[in-house]
Amino acid sequence: MINPERKEEQREDEDIESEIYDGAPSHNLPPLTLRNMPEAVPLRKMVGPSIIIVGAALGTGEYVVWPYVTSQVGFSLLWLAFLGITVQFFMNMEIERYTLATGETAIVGFSRFWKPWGMIFVVLALLQNMWPAWATSGATALTFLIGGGNVTLISIIILVTCGLALSLSPIIYKTVEKAQFVKVGLVLTFLVIAIISAISATSWLDLPGEAIGSVGRLPGSDILSPSLLIGAIAAAGAGGVINLVQSNWIRDKGYGIGAYIPRLPSPITGEDEAKPATGFMMRQDAKNLARWKKWWKNANIEQFISFWMIALFTIVVFSLLAYSTVYDQNVVTKANFDFIKYEGEVLQEVVGTWFGNLFWLMGVVTMFFVSLAVIDLTSRIGADVLKTVFLTNDTRFTEGRIYLAFVWGIIVMGSIILLLGFNQPLLLVFVNTSINGIATLIASVLLIQLNRKALPKAIRVNGFRFGMMIFTVLFFSVFAFLLVFDQARTLFGG
Q: Buried-most residue among 181, 193, 266, 395 (CB within 10 A)?
């Protein structure tokens, strides 16, 4: 028997599909029509999108950047990691706010105000992620583990393997989610082993005093360059376009109004659709607002546990591990992968050969799964923007086909970069994270505009969260200014 209440809701949806929400700009995209907010699902069924985003981050910031920073300046900058993760939590929730209410991605929302924003973020995504930083990092760690090998060839094999995995997935989101669950589980298991076996008591004792006592202080540019600094902050968590693709992942998971939007299938193994992913707007009545509150509460809890807590825990423990091994030894002085090699060798001596090898193996596994997530998220952004904003009525170019074109285009570009000799992993990571920081600044400004002007008053950002978004803009503005100043000084010989 059909539930009378559900039947009534279906009738209401049919009745209001022609009703237009006029609060969001519609000069670049079709207007948003009204839909009922689905019933909120239990919290346990919402877990996934934040695991993907933290999985995409675990490896750049946690395994590479912050341990390197710790090897140079100890725990004196961990307060910045805490702030970076915290402001990204609030930023991620503003990204989720818009998609929960509309089913559209935040970048498509930006394009409602100014159409070129979509392509600007596609370009930023490509500039940030076409560098095969994670593939080369994993390949380099593998050469440490097996005693040699061709980093370029191994990196290309990693890229192609990621491309095949994404291309042959019937529902791409499920593949990426399962992969990141496995990856995060392995990382957390390794860190528990590290806490028991490898981190010295002195490191634990030094951590609080150095981290808290250094709040507000920055090292000189002769120790850490502003580009490295802003990259480290952006790598504390996710940053830039990695944050923004949270929209795509929660939509494919079926959060809120996103349940009405088709998921991204592979055009090879799934049922590809030509339909663009323009959204709707939730109705503003008591029943729908009550459902919104449940979705919003559960989304915040899922993000806090899966993103904030895991990201902070991994940065702290990996930094403790670096502090216990390579800090203040005047061995690692340049931005390259030597510190990972040296750290593994020290762990082999202090803990045992098995643990040093496990450390390098964790690097191989971690970087492979990051490569998978990064290729996916970059391709998702490109496919979503091109299909929804620019190729809306062209049925030849489905979102799935555009997605695959991006996947293999990124792999080809990454392979060319490697074959041209750009295969220093940490250098590529810093290129990535510097662009990451700038993209985060731009996105945080646009999110304020989007969630203040395009959403109804009852669900728009205000109060404390509005203040945190203003703080996020100021926070990243300071480091963007430092980056520009440093580059200008270098360019003009200052």
A: 266
The answer to whether 60 and 235 have CB atoms below 8 angstroms apart is yes
By three-state DSSP, how is residue 298 classified? helix
Within a 10 A sphere around the Cβ of 448, how many other Cβ atoms?
A: 16
Q: Which two tokens stand for residue 420?
A: 């041209």
Coil, helix or strand for 444?
helix
pLDDT given at position 230: 67
- Examine the pLDDT at 330 and tell me if it is beyond 70: no
Cα distances from 242 to residues 7, 233, 436, in angstroms, run 39, 14, 8
**59 three-class SS:** coil
- C-alpha 112/C-alpha 118 separation (Å) is 9
Residue 124 to residue 241: CA distance in whole angstroms:
8
Distance CA 422, CA 424 (A): 6
Query: Which helix or strand (DSSP H or E) is residue 281 part of?
Result: strand 280-282
Q: How far, in Å, CA of 402 to CA of 382, rounded?
A: 8
Is the pLDDT reported for residue 125 higher than 50?
A: yes
DSSP 370-381: HHHHHHHHHHHH
- For residues 436 and 234, the answer to whether their CB atoms sit within 8 Å is yes
Residue 85 near residue 453 (C-beta atoms within 8 A): no
* Rg of the chain (C-alpha set): 23
Q: Helix, strand, coil % (nearest 5) of the chain? A: 70, 0, 25
In whole angstroms, give the CA distance from residue 439 to residue 415: 24
330 DSSP β-pair partners:
none
Q: State the Cα–Cα distance between residues 454 and 461, nearest whole angstrom.
A: 10
Query: How far is C-alpha 432 from the chain's CA centre?
Result: 12
372-410 tens-digit pLDDT: 988 998 999 999 999 888 887 777 778 888 999 999 999
**How far, in whole angstroms, is CA 149 from its chain's centroid?**
30
Lookup result for tokens 């490896």: 59
Q: Which two tokens stand for residue 442?
A: 């731009």
What's the CA gap between 386 and 115, in Å, rounded?
11
Question: Would you place residue 3 in the very low, low, confident or very high pLDDT band (cuts 50, 70, 90)?
Answer: very low
Phi-psi region of 149 (alpha: psi -120 to 50; beta: other; left: phi over 0): left
Sequence-distant (≥ 6) Cβ neighbours of residue 112 within 8 angstroms: 24, 25, 26, 28, 29, 454
- Is-contact 129 410, C-beta < 8 A? yes
**What tokens does 80 get?**
């910045």
Helices (H), 304-395: 310-325, 338-350, 353-385
What is the mean predicted confidence (pLDDT) over 487-491? 61
Contact 274, 477 (CB under 8 A): no
CB 493: neighbour CB atoms within 10 A? 5
